[in-house]
Structures are given as C-alpha cells and as structure tokens.
TrEMBL record:
Entry's Gene Ontology molecular function annotations: DNA binding
SUPFAM superfamilies named in the record: DNA breaking-rejoining enzymes
Keywords from the named record: DNA recombination
Secretion signal, residue range per the UniProt entry: none
Annotated Tyr recombinase domain residues: 286-459
InterPro entries: DNA_brk_join_enz, Integrase-like_cat_sf, Integrase_catalytic
Name used for this protein in its record: Tyr recombinase domain-containing protein
Superkingdom per UniProt: Bacteria
Any GO BP annotation: DNA integration
PROSITE patterns in the record: TYR_RECOMBINASE (PS51898)
Length: 459
C-alpha cells in the first residue's frame, strides 16, 4: 500500500511525504474492519433503562384487553433486560440445547422471548395471546418460534394459556357474530341448543357438526338477514327455492342444516312454526367405483417424505379416514405385537394388525421424527414442525393429509373407498368387512352391493 495514500487515509495530513512503497496483503498495514467498527459503535451506544411497562408481582388487572404491539420500538431501542429476565434467556438457551434445536431455530426463539422480556419482564406469567399477537409484527418470527417460546414459558410456569377453543368453534362463533343482532341471537340460541344447553335436554353435538350445518346454509342466511328481521319471517317457498339453488349432496346437506335450525328453534319456542317440515329432497347414493391401476401403481413410492408415505399406507392399506389418522397416538403403538390401536368417536376403538410394509414405514417415520424433534412432548404419532413443541400438543392438521393425496392426483376418501371395495370383491361376508375396517353394517352392505351387483332379471 502506498505510504502517501495511507497517510491521507489515516492521518489526514497534507504535508509532503517522500514517495515510498511498502508491502501489501498479509504484511501490509491493517485498516479497521467493518466488524470492528460495528463492535465499537455498539459498545459506545448508551445502555437503555429497564422498561416502564414491567408487570410486577402482585400487580392487579383492571380489565382484560389485547396488547397493542404496533407501538413497540425496534429491537435496538428496546429497554434493557433485568437480571431475572437475563437468567430466563440463559435458561431458554439450555432448554434449546436439551431439545437439540438447530442454530437458526434457537436464535429466533430466543429473539422472540427477548422482545417479550425486555418489555414485560419475567416476574409474572405472560399471556399466550400476547405472544401470538407479537409474531405478525416482527420479521423472522414465525409460528414455530412462537410455539417454542410458549412451550418454554409453560415448562417454567410463566404462561397464561388461551382458553381451549377448537377451530370449528372459533369458525362458528365468528360467523354467527357477523349477522344483525336479532338474527345472531336466534342462531346463537340454535348453537346453544345443539351443544345441549337449551330449554330441552338434548345430547350435545360436536362443533364440527354445527359448523357443517352452518356452512351449508350460510348463503341463505346471508341473503335472508338483509331482507328479514327474524327467521320467523322466512316462508316455506323461500326454503324450497334455497334448496333448489344447488344440486346433489349440496342440496341434501343444505336441507339438513335448515331442518336442524328451524326444528330446534321451534322446539325452543323461539319460532312459532317450522317451515321445513313439508320440504322434501331425496338424493341418489352413488355406488363406489374402483380406481384405475395406473392411479395406484407406485403410490407409496411417489410420496415425497416418510410422513407422506406413512399417511398413504394407512389409507391405501388399512382404509383409515382423515380423523382416524389424526387421532393416532404414540402410546397406542405396540411394535412387539405389531398392532396400532385407533381411537374412534364415542369411545370406540379399532386394532390395526400391521403388515411388514406398514411397520417399515412407521419405523422410518419414527426415526425421522426423532431426528427432527427429539424432545417433542406431542403424544400424537404424526406431527409437524408447528405442533412438535406447541403447548397444546395438537394433532396433525387435516389439510396436510388431504394435500398429501392432492399432490398425487387423488383424494383420500377415494383411495379409502377403493381399498374397501377391493376387499369386498373377494368376499360376500359383511362380517369380514366390519371386523377388518371397523365399518357399520349398512356401509358393509353398500360395498358388497357394489362389488357383487345383482343380475338383471329380464321378463
């Protein structure tokens, strides 16, 4: 490096200097690197005081409200960590090492916790809703890192969990609240009665069934809510017109939903009459049809990863439906006996006797699961990165299962139907189908009629 250039760069001197050349590279003079400049600037930055918004022990709440993170300053301007908060950050790093999180996951999870503790502190438990509300406002904070922070705080008794609410319940309450007041009051009364909390004693129905009914009739309710002040103003002709707007199974399910709403509200003495009583709608139940050989050839091998391959095998070999796959648990797998117990609704169970292929795929998936999430507390057999460390240990999302088949150009219910139909072609005994697949008597007879159609008698 030229000595004159070095002198002008460092000394800012204009005095004439004899021209002199010196060595460059490893033997030349070193200028301050960018990393060193940043380190010195950071060291010269004044230390911020602790937050004025720390939640102290014994502090009482006047009322509950959502925390507004939009006014949160950038990370470099956040308040300083207290000693207790710094100890929690170190505990988080140890928590991550025990679970063998990778460097990126650990860094982002610690960053999420750091933002929370700088602003709120570590003296009192943090609401789960506050953690989830922070994620959309910070870059690089995804759902997974938020869940890991939630799991860490739950393990240290520093979390106030959200009330347990299923996706179906949240969908129902959200959509019902969108209607005008009087309409919403009547629909809420129907929902409460379906949940067994009405005037008359009823068996509580699932939120999923309520959602299905409401989803089927929602277009009609949207229209009627703009024309009428109450459901009592809806006429039989409007019911019939609404049912005829769609065809096939959509028309059938729409009438089922309307009958449920108007029938229950009449029984609850909210409506004077039931306009759906005289409306009928029959549907033809199609017989199951087999899939083509080219659709099934190499189906498991075409799945993209161990989880997808196991999902395909559970449907194509054992004819499990989506909800049964989601309910599979680690503690119900018996590798020694080669069985897997499936928990079904209303306390029923079904025992799968695993073939060699399924056992191989389960072993491959378990090794993959242990490599990805070795310390996951989730008891379900199939999990994702979202549910591996979520505090509520959710099952595998149904969308993941349906997407697995969609990428193969199929639908899960078609593959399941093909498996049962193939077995029905080898027997005429419905008891065998009932024991093998855990289906009902009418369903077994339905598949037998499709596999062994009665001959047409010509007269």
């Amino acid at each position: 490096m030229c000595a004159i250039a070095r002198q002008h760069r460092i000394d800012n001197s204009d005095e004439p200097t004899p021209i002199q050349l010196t060595f460059g590279g490893a033997l030349g003079p070193r200028f301050t690197s960018r990393a060193e400049v940043n380190r010195r600037a950071k060291a010269a930055t004044p230390t911020h005081a602790p937050s004025e918004h720390l939640v102290r022990v014994g502090q009482l709440h006047l009322f509950d409200c959502e925390r507004d993170w939009t006014r949160l300053p950038p990370d470099e301007n956040l308040p300083a960590l207290t000693g207790q908060s710094q100890a929690m950050i170190e505990a988080m790093r140890a928590f991550a090492r025990e679970r063998r999180w990778d460097h990126t996951t650990t860094t982002l999870s610690v960053r999420t916790l750091t933002v929370l503790l700088r602003w709120i502190g570590a003296e009192m438990p943090i609401r789960e809703a506050d953690i989830r509300a922070l994620r959309p406002l910070r870059r690089n904070l995804d759902k997974g890192t938020g869940n890991r922070a939630i799991a860490f705080l739950a393990a240290h008794d520093l979390l106030v969990p959200d009330p347990t609410t299923t996706a179906s319940e949240l969908w129902v309450t959200t959509h019902v609240d969108q209607y005008p007041d009087h309409f919403a009051t009547e629909i809420h009364a129907w929902v409460q009665a379906m949940r067994g909390q009405g005037r008359r004693r009823r068996k509580p129905r699932s939120w999923k069934l309520i959602r299905n009914h409401l989803y089927a009739v929602r277009p009609l309710l949207n229209t009627w809510s703009t024309r009428h002040r109450s459901l009592r103003d809806v006429t039989e002709d409007q019911i019939l017109d609404g049912v005829r707007q769609v065809t096939g199974s959509a028309s059938y399910h729409r009438l089922l939903g309307l009958r449920s709403i108007f029938g229950i509200l009449k029984a609850e003495r909210i409506l004077p009459s039931d306009p759906t009583r005289a409306v009928t709608n029959s549907r033809a139940v199609p017989l199951p049809t087999p899939l083509r050989d080219d659709q099934l050839r190499g189906l498991i091998e075409r799945a993209e990863d161990p989880r997808a391959q196991l999902i395909v095998a559970l449907v194509a070999v054992h004819a499990l439906n989506v909800e049964e796959i989601r309910s599979l648990r680690m503690d119900l797998l018996d590798n020694h006996a080669g069985t897997l117990t499936v928990v079904r609704p209303r306390g029923r169970t079904r025992i799968l006797y695993l073939d060699d292929l399924t056992q191989t795929l389960i072993g491959r998936w378990l090794r993959h699961r242990h490599a990805m999430w070795p310390a996951s507390p989730n008891p379900h057999l199939l999990i994702s990165s979202y549910g591996a460390h979520a505090a509520n240990t959710p099952p595998q999302a149904a969308l993941t299962i349906t997407t697995t088949f969609r990428r193969l150009g199929l639908q899960s219910h078609r593959v399941r139907s093909d498996r049962i139909l193939h077995e029905a072609t080898t027997t005429e005994d419905p008891i065998l189908l009932i024991r093998l697949f855990g289906i009902t008597v009418p369903t077994a007879m339905h598949y037998l009629h499709a596999a062994h159609p009665a001959p047409i008698v010509r007269r």
